[in-house]
Design a protein that fits this description.
eight-stranded antiparallel beta sheet; mainly beta; globular; about 10% helix
Length: about 140
């Protein structure tokens, strides 16, 4: 089970571990920060990635599996999060994923991105509250 660590009152980090689902773990860990909103960056490896390409009313889903004996390289993981008025956290992430043999995929991170061997993630608070959160209400309404 991954643990959240505090560098400052507004910067946190976590090392997600093999077998964990990226979004599910973030939804568990973000409440421990008490932050209203911020951004997330990360790098590391995955055994499976599930990303979406937005098509206006949903996502075309792409599932990428690591080749035998390899991992997927999460070359860039970036996004933001907000805490809704009901207290729930909504991370919104995008990733660039590379598979051996030069295949590269990019898109919206969906549940089903499974860590292998680990992901290194930093969580940063952003100043501001009400105005930004109200603009992102489409995530929970």
């Amino acid at each position: 089970m991954s643990r959240l660590f505090s560098l400052t009152e507004s910067i946190y980090y976590v090392k997600l571990l093999k077998g964990e689902d990226l979004l599910k773990e973030l939804r568990k860990l973000l409440p421990q920060t008490g932050l209203e909103l911020g951004f997330i960056t990360g790098i590391g490896g995955l055994e499976r990635a599930k990303i979406g390409i937005f098509k206006g009313n949903g996502y075309d889903e792409v599932i990428i599996e690591a080749l035998k004996g390899h991992v997927l390289e999460a070359a860039s993981l970036i996004g933001n999060f907000v805490r809704a008025p009901n207290g729930e956290y909504y991370p919104h992430l995008h990733a660039v994923i590379a598979r051996s043999k030069g295949e590269v995929y990019a898109g919206h991170v969906l549940e089903g991105c499974i860590v292998d061997p680990f992901l290194e993630i930093f969580i940063y608070a952003l100043p501001g509250k009400t105005d930004v959160i109200s603009e992102f209400k489409h995530r929970w309404t």
